[in-house]
Amino acid sequence: MALHWIYPSLLTVLSFIPNHALRNYPDNEVTLLDSMSALGDLGWEAYPAEGWEEISVMDERNTPMRTYQVCNVMEANQNNWLRTSHIPRDGAQRVYIEIKFTLRDCNSLPGVPGTCKETFNMYYYESNNANLWFIKESQYAKIDTIAADESFTQVDVGDRVMKLNTEVRDISNLSKKGFYLAFQDVGACIALVSVRVFYKKCPLTVLNLARFPDTVTGGDSALVEVRGSCVNDSEEFEAPRMYCSADGGWLVPIGRCVCKAGFGEHEGHCQPCRPGFYKASALDAYCVKCPLHSHAPLERAPECACEKGFYRAELDPRSMACTRPPSAPESPISTINETSVTLEWSPPRESGGRGDITYSVHCRKCSEDGRKCGPCGSGPHFIPRQFGLSLPKVHVTDLLPHTNYTFSIEAVNGVSDLSPSPRQIVSVNITTSQTVSVILKERKSKDSITLAWQGPERASGAVVEYEVIYYEKNQRDQNYTVLKTRSNVMTVDGLKPGTTYVFRVRARTDGGYGNYGGEIELETSHEDMLAIGDPNQSTILAVSIAGGIVLLVLLVACFVVSGRHCGYIKAKQDPDEEKMQFQHGRVNLPGSRMYIHPHTYEDPNQAIRDFAKEIDVSSIRIERVIGAGEFGEVCSGRLKLPSKREIYVAIKSLKAGYSEQQRRDFLSEASIMGQFDHPNIIRLEGVVTRCKPVMIITEYMENGSLDTFLKKHDGQFTIIQLVGMLRGIAAGMSYLSEMNYIHRDLAARNILVNSNLVCKVSDFGLSRVLEDDPEAAYTTRGGKIPIRWTAPEAIAYRKFTSASDVWSYGIVMWEVISYGERPYWEMSNQDVIKAIDEGYRLPAPMDCPVVLHQLMLDCWEKGRSERPKFGQIVATLDKLIRNPNSLRQLANSSIWEDPPTPEPSVSTVEDWLDSIKMGQYKEHFCGAGYVTLDSVLYVTVSDLGRMGVSLAGHQKKILSSIQILQTQQGTHVQV
Ligand code: ACK
């Protein structure tokens, strides 16, 4: 009865409910029943008949809504039931019931008895049967008693204040097909505005390239484990899994998928690599540009095919440029010694882009008349070996005398076998001979000397005659005398008393002349006497008389045949040619490979004359200035010597106004460099001393000094290329140490690099360690030393040895692998000395193979005898080059994780990039919106890729630095 005055007030309230807003549910909820969206009758059961009543009302959009009301507050003992139709549970184990209702405040109803209630009860009954017409009250399970948070009064209605209550309850562990809900009123005044039944699901999501489907949450609060499936064009790296929580959220992602080879990751899916880009392995995140000399004309390339004429060796990483076989070795030199020969050559001009060049030597021999030719067979013995030589040098022994040999030298690298083109070779022809090596006995008088010698050990034919050459010591340039005899004894007379003469003898057999034997110096006596120092003297004397007669006959015959005085030939050789011969001979005599310090010469100009070739200034064309040296400018230009091809050269000149001492110091570099002849030592072409400015001419190295070169090409070389460079430097140093030369300033800045990446040791001046090197600092003992590169014993007590050069070599290794990083960063020299003394050693640079860091550490052994010799270093590096797998294991620590000084504190993106030497990317960062240092903390590898920072080395460097920034700022983000 009281309903009649309650209805209008409820309708008033309902007209304020924005129905469309009620239907805007979260996307992780699946609605099973929504009374507000029912267009017709809800068809719910209400009993008794005078209890709950279904009413249609209009919402604000005039959409009809079904509601139920009951308000039998004036009568006691109410028990009114309202039961929904069957609600299928749709697989859900836990469902939620959201009810919206209004409830009248009993106190605001005038005259209602004390039986008036302000609550109602909610029940459910599980059933597989969707058509039950009756459920006993006792069969229901109670969900809850629902009370209103807000009840309303007549005043509220008058004021049009809406007091709609919303309550949510849930039922768990449902197992039957569906259930019925029931609302029991026991005497309240209620309008049930809406009932919504829903369950929660974890919505479809894609994470780590795995798709996780819509997943219904579990019963109670159990987590549901879901296996993800990899998105298109991706594959499992580790089985992707996630947990769907009871409230519809995804938790704990495990595993991931990765884009297949040929596809790169882009915003949660895999995109085919564009033409010109490739991705070799599923484990790489992004497509990267094809390396040099390779191409990928189609999309989705797992690798780039090599251009015509270029190849990739089996073990070459796909990221490495395609390479080609080397050109032929160059400038072969043969030094014949009787029946053995030493062959040396320069590395090929074109390395093919690889650092793994080895050499093979093929041998053919021909009889001297050239009629019978064929392979050499197993006769000759090659030292160290015939094939796979790592140094451009081989010594061949056990050759047949008086035989023509052709040695074909080929350079081979890791792709030579893949190329169908014939290998390029350089050939050397030699003819073997024999030498009279030992002058056995001698007899001297005031004006004559008698010599006796032994014939060649393995003469191929009978000795026809011997030729004796002699000259007054130090007078060879002026004149020398050649005498011939059939005997192996000769008396030379007409000599000056008390004078030293130099004698050499060679034999002529049927096959021709052999080589001269070693020199012997003999001095005539001051007075006439028989200087007989041998029990066989009488024999010698007798033989010599006989020999003398033969000689006389020969002399006369010779005189008659040639019509001239053949026993006395004045030397008229070009002094340069003479000197070259001298150098050649000196370097190849056993035990003579010794460096001669220019200071051992009384006259320093003589040292220059002995070791450097004077070049006519008209042969030089200076083209441009390339730098500044201690004594003046360094220029590049060309040198064209008569009957030689024009070559590029570097020209160091001595500036005007120099003192004599400065001139000497300047030229000392040439007299040192001129003594060396090795493919990894900068080659001296000659000097200009006869006119001004005084100049030193060396071979031109297109890529300049190694430190600048590496900084310019940061991250761009393969580890094999870097090791190849290091091997070259070690080979040059090994040669210097064999020559007993100690460099004292070995550093990347003193290594020059040519266009084939061949590294050569340079900077040999006498004063340079003191004056020239900007890195040199005064030590407590007053000497000026490049502290960071110098071994502790050399700093402490000037103990410079090849072992201290090895220490410096270790630092050069570090410079090379870190692409020109400054050793010990910004530490002061004093701190470096202290740290080294306390046992600190530079950590492995980023991406440094363990084996290389270990080699560095070996070079930095405190005890100098513990350090490896340069020859051993070369052998170790050769092994690594032959077996690149050994370089795969990288040292764990990176310079960016473990620097002795933390990253300098910076406050702007520009300063930060400058501090890590990545300043070239300032515009990239700014353009991508990273203008504050804070924003940089969250940059990921994909962000870098999008910005255009594509070099892997640069990405790693930047990301490592970001990690340091994060630690400094107490943030840690997974990048
Ligand atoms: O780093 P760079 O370009 O290489 O600058 C220095 C500069 O001269 C002063 O020493 C360059 N330089 C020196 N010798 C040679 C050379 N033989 N070939 C090419 N550049 C050279 C060096």
TrEMBL record:
It is found in: Cell membrane. SUPFAM superfamilies: Fibronectin type III, Galactose-binding domain-like, Growth factor receptor domain, Protein kinase-like (PK-like), SAM/Pointed domain. SMART domains: EPH_lbd, Ephrin_rec_like, FN3, SAM, TyrKc. It is an enzyme of class 2 (transferase). Residues 904-968 form the SAM domain. Keywords: ATP-binding, Cell membrane, Disulfide bond, Glycoprotein, Kinase, Membrane, Nucleotide-binding, Phosphoprotein, Receptor, Repeat, Signal, Transferase, Transmembrane, Transmembrane helix, Tyrosine-protein kinase. ATP binds at residues 626-634, 652. It comes from the Eukaryota. One of its GO terms (molecular function) is ATP binding. Residues 1-21 form the signal peptide. The active site is at residue 745. It holds the Pfam family SAM_1. It catalyses: L-tyrosyl-[protein] + ATP = O-phospho-L-tyrosyl-[protein] + ADP + H(+). CDD domains: EphR_LBD_A, FN3, PTKc_EphR_A, SAM_EPH-R. Residues 325-435, 436-527 form the Fibronectin type-III domain. Residues 620-881 form the Protein kinase domain. PROSITE patterns: EPH_LBD (PS51550), FN3 (PS50853), PROTEIN_KINASE_ATP (PS00107), PROTEIN_KINASE_DOM (PS50011), PROTEIN_KINASE_TYR (PS00109), RECEPTOR_TYR_KIN_V_1 (PS00790), SAM_DOMAIN (PS50105). One of its GO terms (biological process) is axon guidance. InterPro entries: Eph_TM (IPR027936), Ephrin_rcpt_lig-bd_dom (IPR001090), Ephrin_rcpt_TKs (IPR050449), FN3_dom (IPR003961), FN3_sf (IPR036116), Galactose-bd-like_sf (IPR008979), Growth_fac_rcpt_cys_sf (IPR009030), Ig-like_fold (IPR013783). This is receptor protein-tyrosine kinase. It comes from Aldrovandia affinis.
